[in-house]
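Marked as duplicate of an earlier ticket. Keeping the data here for the record.
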Amino acid sequence: MDPSRFVDQIPDYFTCSICMMVAKNPLEHVDCKDCFCTTCIAPLSDCPVCGNQLYDRVNELHPMLFDMVYKKLKMKCPNEGYDASFLWPSEDDHQQNCEFRTVPCSLCGETMLTTSRFDHEKVCNLISCEITGCGKMIRRDELDAHDIEYCRLHMDSTC
């Protein structure tokens, strides 16, 4: 994880010695005490720092260090226009629920804030409307091209 995404300076101890980012699901090598991301260290057999064997030589961080420091690291919300911060372990929850995240319209693909999507989809030009006179379903952007003579008296629609 990029250290610039965090509110405060991250202690060097939490920097993965392989990817040089903040270690995700950190493991500590018992010999050199360096910290690594679980995914960075997984394919290796020897420590890239001290050269000693890794097998049975890596541990999770000390529970006190993990609970009192690592789990309290605060991240900046990556969504534009929102200055909130949240605890790192809840990043996935924040991304799922942040009202400032952008999502695409399910009809036209235009991106907007998640809070605007419902209103947009009510007026999106690609929504289909039922024409009362003929019963046809026509996209809002095609209403002008519809056979006005046939439906002249029945131009009410559900749009």
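See parent ticket for discussion. The chain has two domains: 3-72, 101-159.
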